[in-house]
Each structure stands twice: as structure tokens, then as C-alpha cells.
Amino acid sequence: MKERIHITFFDQSKKSYATGSQIDLTFPLLAQIVPDSLIVAVTAALNNEIVINRTGHIATVLVGIPVFTEWAIKNHAARLFYSMLKKTDYPGYLYMIENVPVGCKATVVLPRETKNYILNGRKFKLTKNNGKRLVEIGSGKYTLSGDYEKDISN
Fold first, then answer.
1. Distance from CA of residue 42 to its chain's centroid?
2. Same domain (yes/no): 137, 125
3. Which of 71, 97, 123 corresponds to the end of one domain?
4. Same domain, yes or no: 88 and 54
5. DSSP state of 80
6. What are phi and psi of 68, to 5 degrees?
7. Sign of the alpha-carbon dihedral angle for 82, 84, 88, 94
8. pLDDT score, position 94
9. Residues 111, 74 share a domain
């Protein structure tokens, strides 16, 4: 099966898998799909994707973080991973934590009368503005809709 996956998704000219994204390169390395003779080249393609194409940012979305984390641990790439997570500019992980509710969209159950809440470990305040209910997180404001289940959207 590993050979079939390799044949189907490997791009010989780019030494890359599928789209060449971080997750598309990390997963075959982690799952030992990459033949031994290509590990160095595919790892170099992953490094290029991280350092050059993504300016050192993590770009695996939430689904890819556990995969990339496991790969980084097994391949002694903790420094690389740490540097990716410490990026404070957009679309850095720390930028997102500071400025945007996790995932930009979340569903949360809110009691009708309370004014202070916690979402994803962060405190936020419910306010009214021109009759609309807003959530304030850091410098961002997000409109709430619905009754008990509130959709927090940018």
C-alpha cells in the first residue's frame, strides 16, 4: 500500500507529494511512505516549503498540527517547530491566539444575562452596540447571532 501511495502522489520533478504543502510532505515522511533514497530530498522540499514559501510559518491547519508535531519530535526538529510556533506576525500561531478566536468561528452556549465568558481559554466580554450583541476579544469585535447557541464570526 505504501508503494501505491508513493506512486500515486509523488511528483518526481519537485521531489514532493500531492500539493507540496507542509502536511502533504510531512505525512508521507511520518508514515514511512517515502523510499529511503528520497527522504533527504523530500525533507529538503518540506524545509523549503516552511522557510521560503511560508516564511517560517506553520501552515498545516489544525488537522495537521498533531502530524507535524509527531514528525518534528521523531526527527529532532523541535527547534524548527518552536520557531514556527513563535511567529507573532500574520498568519503566525501567536498572532492568531492574540487577535482572533480560535478557528475564526466557534459555537458557544451563552447564558442570557451574564456579561463575561471564557472561550478557548480566553476571557471575552459581551457588549451591545446599536442593538447588536458583540464579543470583544483583544482588539477584535465579533457579532453574535441566534438565541442560546451563539455563532461567533469575524
1. 21
2. yes
3. 97
4. yes
5. H
6. -65, -40
7. negative
8. 80
9. no
Residues 77 and 35 in one domain: yes
Distance separating alpha carbons of residues 53 and 152, to the nearest angstrom:
31
pTM exceeding the 0.85 threshold for the entire prediction: no
Number of domains observed in the structure of the chain = 2
Please report the beta strands in the chain, taking only residues with DSSP state E, as ranges in sequence order: 10-11, 16-17, 105-109, 116-119, 122-129, 132-137, 140-143, 149-153
Distance CA 24, CA 106 (A): 26
Residue numbers of the domain that contains 121: 100-153
The one-letter amino acid code at 133 reads R
Q: What is the residue type of 18?
A: A
Q: Which helix (H) or strand (E) holds 5?
A: helix 2-9
H-run or E-run covering 16: strand 16-17
The pLDDT, as a whole number, for residue 1 is 93
Altogether, the residues listed in the chain come to a count of 154
Residues 74 and 71: their CA atoms lie apart, in Å, by 5
Ranges of residues in the chain whose predicted pLDDT is under 70: 100-154
- Residue 110 in grid coordinates: 451563552
How many Cα atoms occupy the beta-carbon half-sphere of 58 within 13 Å? 27
Residue 72: what residue type? A
Same domain, 70 and 8: yes
